[in-house]
Specification:
CATH superfamily of chain A: Chorismate synthase AroC
Number of strands of chain A: 18
Strand content of chain A: 15-25%
Structural class of chain A: alpha+beta
Order of helices and strands of chain A: EEEHEEEEHHHEEHHEHEHEEEEEEEH
Distance between the termini of chain A: 34 Å
Strand order of the largest sheet of chain A: 1-2-3-7-4
CATH architecture of chain A: 4-Layer Sandwich
Helix content of chain A: 25-40%
CATH class of chain A: Alpha Beta
Oligomer: homotetramer
Radius of gyration of chain A: 21 Å
Chain lengths: 360, 360, 360, 360
C-alpha cells in the first residue's frame, strides 16, 4: 500500500535511492498510443540531478529502459514496465550517520513504522523516487495529448524564498519555463531566485518556495462527485510529493477573504460554449472541470538536508549531533516542476478514462 | 466512482438533497467497538442545519437510523448501513431556476458530465451529503478512541472573512470549540466573526474562512510511503469537502519563507521517547506520523449562493440573470468543523488499520 | 472489506437477516439509463421467499425503495441507494441455539473471525443478503440492455440431486426458465427435480445441484489480461454466492479429458465476423470474450439446515446436539437462478465499462 | 487494469513473452521478513521450462533480480521489485503466422480488444507471465511461513487425461510431489501420466488434467463475508491462470449429489479446539476458514498449441490453415503446480493481513 496511485490509469512504483534501481509499472494505459523511450527520457532529463549548478551534482543519467507494454512504437494496452538503474551511488557518505535520525527527514518515522530501513541515501524516502513519477507522467502526458490534443500542462516556479514571480497562467509556455535553470518564466524574478538559492547554498542552508501549475484545454465534465473531486485527487497527488506541505486550487487561501459576490464566477456564452468571466474556481466546480483553466499552487518546504551541525538523537535513544554530507539540492523548486506536471498529468489521465468509461 | 472513500475503513455514501434520504455504508469496521445511534447523532447534531442563527434555517433533524452492522451495542465487523431521511424538503424554491446555472455551483458541470441532474436543492452536489460523512466519521472516531484512547481530534474556526483567531493547538478542547456558535474558541475573535457573518447576511452576501484541525495522540508510524502519505490522504479528504479550495499541513505556505535551518525540527529524547522541539512538520515526516501533533488548515471559499441578482446562462445557452431563493448559510465555517473532524477521523482510522495489518 | 464488489460498476451491500433491513449502494452507474423500482422489483420477485411450495415459506415481499441516484425515470450517474426492509422476522426460532454452532453454517467461523455475531437468522451470513445482489444486478442488467441491446443473460437449473436437464444454451429463453417453479426449462427433468425436492423435504433433508448460465451477445474484447480475466471475475462472483462450491467455464472439468486437437475451437469467417465452429472455450479466450456465447456452470451444495438432530458444539466448547427449526428451503437451486444471473450481469457491466474507458 | 492482484498484499505484474523481460512489483509486504533471491529462485526453478523431458525445451534460466524492497536479507516494508530477463527468445517461429489467429489462443481476442498485439510468442497472453506469479508467490509463501509457521501449501497433479491419482491431502508432502517430473505423488499414476503425455506428444497433440491443492494449518477466521469469501478469491486466483477452466472447493461438483445430512460437517471438540469430523466444506464455511484443511481442485484444458494443421482465419478475414512451430509443452500440469501454489499463497497472505488489520 502506498506504492500505487490512480484508479484506471494506475501505477505502482518501486526503488530505493541506493539500490539497484527504481521504476514503475503502469496498468490501464490505452492501446495504440504512439510513444517511445525518447519521449519518456525528455521528461526525465528535466528532473534529473546535475542539469544545472542550482541542483545536486549527483551524476545520474536516469536512463529509462522500457521492459514491456510498448511494441512497434505504440502502447499495447498491457502493463508498461519502466526501469531506471541507479548509477552514481555513493553510500559511504551515509555510513557516518546510519544510526542518527536526520532532522525533518523520514529516518525516524520509517524506523517507527517498519522497525528497519535502508539508510543509504534515504532509501525509499529519498526524493529519488520521483523519477518513477516523472516517467509514468510522461506516458500520461502522451495519452492526454493523443486523445485530447488541446490539453497543455504547464508548471513553473512561482516563488523561491520571498521572491515571487509575475506569470500569466493563460499564456505561459513550457519553453518559457525551461528557458531559465530556475524554471521561473519571469526573467527578473528568475534572476532574484537564482541569487537567493546561491546565497542559501553559501550559507550551507536551503530555501523553499511555490510551484504553480496550469492546465489549459481540459473539457468540462472530468472529475467525480463527493470524494473523488478533481481538486481532491489533485491535492492528494501534490501532497504526496516529497517536501510538499500545502496546495490550493483556484483562489485558494486568498479566496477566503472575498465575499461570495466577489468570488462567484458568472457564466456567459462564448462561441456557443458555456464559459465564465472570472476563474476563482480554478477550472473546477463541484469537483468537476468546467472547461476553464485548471490552476493550482503547491508549497514546498526548504530542503531538510543542510550542511550545518544539528541536534538530534540516535536510533538507540542517545542525544547527538549530525553534520550531513553528500550531494544535495539547496532548493528543490526547479526540479519539482516536472514532478508537479507529472502528477497532474496522472490525475487528469485517470479522470479522462473514468469519464470515458460511462459516456454513451 | 467518487462515492466511496478509504482503503480498509471504507465508506460509500449516497443521497440527493431533496430525495428520500441520504446515507452511508461502512465496510471494514473492526468488530466489538461499542457504539449506538446516540454516538452518531451527537456528531450529526453539530453539523445539522438550524442549530443557531448563524446557519441555514432548513429544519432537518438529521435523525440517523442504523440499518445493519451494529448489534447489542457493538459493531459486528460487517457492513454498517446508516440512513438519514430528508424531512424538510421544499423544492419549489428551485423550480424557478431549474434551467439556469447558478454561478460557482455544480449545476453546469453536472450537466456537462452526466447530461442530466437533479436540480432540486443542488441534488448530489448539495453540501447536504456531508451528513453522511459526519455519520461515518462518528464511527471512525469511536474506533479510534476505542483502540487508541489517547487520540483527540479537535477542529475549530480559525478565520472568518479577515477575522483571525489565536488558538493554541496543543491545548484547545472540543468543549471550548462548541461553546460558541461560531465554533471559534477565541472569544474575542468569535464575537468579531459573528459580526462579520451577520453583516454579510444583511448585505445578502456570504463570507469564507479557514478551519484548523489538530490531532493529538497519534502514535509514530501511521501513513504510507510515496503516494499514500498521511498528508496526501488528509489533503484529498479536505479538498473533497464542498467549498474547500486549499489545505496546508504543518508550516504550509508560510513555511516556504523559512530556511532549512529554521524549519527543521530537531530531535530530542523526552521520557524515553523520540520527540521534536518544534513542529513545523505538523506531526508528519516522509508521509508518516512522528508522534507529534498533526496540524492542518483548510480554506473555504465564500458560499456560492448569494441573494443577489447575478449574470448567468440557461442550460440551452441563453444569457439570463438569477436571483437565488431558498435557505442558505451565509458562512459554512461553523458547520464545517464537524465535517473536517469527520474526514480527518476517517483518514486516521483507515491508516491505523493499514498499519496494524502488517505489524508483527 | 468483503461487502463491496466490482471496479467501475461497484456495489457495497449491507444487512443482517433479522435486522431492520438490507440494501446496496451502487457507484459508477452511467447516467441516463431508464429504470424504475418495478424493474428492480421484478428481479427481486424471482428470488424472494414464498414464491412457490418448493421454497421457504418466509413471507418477505422484498419491496425495494430507491433512496437516491434515480430521478425522473433515469439514473443520474450518482450513487444509487436501494433499501429492502425485513418484514417477516421471527428470531424466536433461533433463541434455542444461539450458543450452538449449526453444522456447515457460518456460526463458528464468524465467532472465530469477529468474536461475536448476530445469531438471529444467520445474521450477515444468511443467504438473505442475496436480495441486495439481485437488486444491484437488476440495475446492471438494465445498463447492459440499454448499451448493448443484443446481450441476453439466461440462467437455469441444470441439475438437482442426480436429475440432470437437457437444455440448449444457444436458444433457451428466460420465459422457458420461469415457466416451472424449479426454473428448469426441460419439462421432464423439471418434474423429476420437483419430486426429488419434495422427497428430500419429506425426509427432513435437503438437496444440491447445478445452475447453468449462458450469456449471448457479448461483443469480442471484454475482459482483461492476466488477473482480471473474464472467467476469473465470473468465478469469484459465482463462488461468492452462498452454498456455491464449484464453477466451470466452457468445457470445464469435462474438457480435461479431451486432447488439444478435440478441444481447440477453429476460427471461421461468418457474415464478415470472426467466429468459431465449436465453443469449448465458453466464449472466453485468454480471459477476453471472443463473441461466442459465454457459458458457465455453478455447483451448489445441499442446504445446511436440515430438520434432523445433529452433533455439534456450543460456543463455550461443550458437545451438544442441535435440531434446527425455522423456515428453510429444501433446495436453493430455483432461487439461485436470479442470483447467478445478477452476479453475471454485475461482472459483465463492470467489464463493459472497463473496456469502454480505454477505447478510442 | 488486470495486471494487479490482491488488496493488502498487492502485486502488479508486467512483461511480454519475447520482450526484454517480465517481472512483478509487490506492495504491502510486511517488513522484517527474512528472504533472499535464492528463496524466490527455488520456486521459479520449479516452474521454469526445460526442467524435464515432459515440458517445453525453451531454455530460460528465469534468473530473478531483486530491484528493491529487500535489504540486508529482510523485507523493508517498501515495494519489492522483481525482474526476470527473457533470454532464450526466438521470435522467428512466429513470423509465419503473425497474421493468423491461432485457435483457442488469445490472438484474436487481443486484437479485438486492443486493435494490436505483440505477436511474438503470444506476447502478454503467453503463459510465460506466470513466472511473475511464482516469484511473487514465493514472497507470499515466506510471509505466511514467517508469521504462521504451521501453514503448508501443497499442490500436486491429480489427473492427466483420464489418469487419476490417489493422494491423501492430509499427509501429502512437497517432497513427494517434486519427486517425479509429473508432480504426481502417486507413483503408479505418475508413471501412467508420463505415458499419456508422451503419447500425446508423439501424436503431435496435447492433454489436460487437474491440479489439486491443500493448505494445512490455516487458523479459523480468514476470509471475508459476502463478496470476498475465501473460496471466491481462491476461485478468481485459479481461473486467472492460463488454461484453467474450472475450480471446486471442498466437495465441489461431486457434493451436489449428496444430501444435506451427508454433506454437513459435524462439529466436535478436539484438544480444546473446535473441529469437524468430516470436511466436505473444504476448510471454508460462510467464506471464512474454519481451521480444517483448505482443499481445492483446478481443471486445466489441453494446451492449445498442437503441431497439427488447423483451420483458422487471418487478421484481415481470410480463411487459412495454421501449423504451429516453436517450443511447447504437451501438458502444462507439472509446471502448473507451483503456479497454483503461488496463487493460493498470494490469496492467503492477503487475507491474513486483512484479518490482522482489524483484530484487537
Amino acid at each position: 500500500m502506498g506504492d500505487s496511485f490512480g484508479q484506471l490509469f494506475r501505477i505502482m512504483s518501486f526503488g530505493e535511492s541506493h539500490g539497484p534501481g527504481l521504476g514503475v509499472v503502469i496498468e490501464g494505459c490505452p492501446a495504440g498510443i504512439p510513444i517511445g523511450a525518447p519521449d519518456i527520457q525528455a521528461e526525465l532529463d528535466r528532473r534529473r540531478p546535475g542539469q544545472s549548478k542550482l541542483v545536486t551534482p549527483r551524476k545520474e543519467k536516469d536512463q529509462v529502459e522500457i521492459l514491456s507494454g510498448i511494441f512497434e512504437g505504440h502502447t499495447l494496452g498491457t502493463a508498461i514496465g519502466l526501469l531506471i538503474r541507479n548509477a552514481d551511488v555513493d553510500s559511504s557518505k551515509y555510513e557516518d550517520f546510519k544510526d542518527k535520525y536526520r532532522p525533518s527527514h523520514a529516518d525516524y518515522t520509517y524506523d517507527a513504522k517498519y522497525g528497519r530501513r535502508d539508510w543509504r541515501g534515504g532509501g525509499r524516502a529519498s526524493a529519488r523516487e520521483t523519477a518513477a513519477r516523472v516517467a509514468a507522467g510522461a506516458v500520461a502526458k502522451r495519452v492526454l495529448s493523443t486523445r485530447c490534443p488541446e490539453i497543455c500542462v504547464v508548471g513553473w516556479v512561482a516563488q523561491v524564498a520571498d521572491v515571487t514571480a509575475a506569470v500569466d497562467p493563460s499564456s505561459v509556455t513550457p519553453d518559457a519555463v525551461d528557458a531559465h535553470p530556475t524554471r521561473c518564466p519571469d526573467a527578473k524574478a528568475a534572476a532574484d531566485m537564482e541569487t537567493a538559492i546561491q546565497e542559501a547554498r553559501k550559507a550551507r542552508d536551503t530555501v523553499g518556495g511555490v510551484v504553480s501549475c496550469v492546465v489549459r484545454g481540459v473539457p468540462a465534465g472530468w472529475g467525480e462527485p463527493v470524494f473523488d473531486k478533481l481538486e481532491a485527487d489533485l491535492a492528494k497527488a501534490m501532497l504526496s510529493i516529497p517536501a510538499a506541505k500545502g496546495v490550493e486550487v483556484g483562489s485558494g487561501f486568498a479566496g477566503t477573504l472575498l465575499r461570495g459576490s466577489q468570488h462567484n464566477d458568472p457564466f456567459v456564452m462564448s462561441d456557443g460554449e458555456v464559459r465564465t468571466t472570472s476563474n476563482h474556481s480554478g477550472g473546477i466546480q463541484g469537483g468537476i472541470s468546467n472547461g476553464e483553466d485548471i490552476f493550482l499552487r503547491v508549497a514546498f518546504k526548504p530542503v531538510a538536508t543542510i550542511f550545518q551541525s544539528q541536534d538530534t538523537v540516535t536510533s538507540d535513544g542517545r542525544a547527538t549531533t549530525i553534520s550531513p554530507k553528500g550531494r544535495h539540492d539547496p532548493c528543490v523548486l526547479p526540479r519539482a516542476v516536472p514532478i508537479v506536471e507529472a502528477m497532474v498529468s496522472l490525475v487528469l489521465c485517470d479522470h479522462m478514462l473514468r469519464q470515458r468509461a460511462r459516456q454513451p
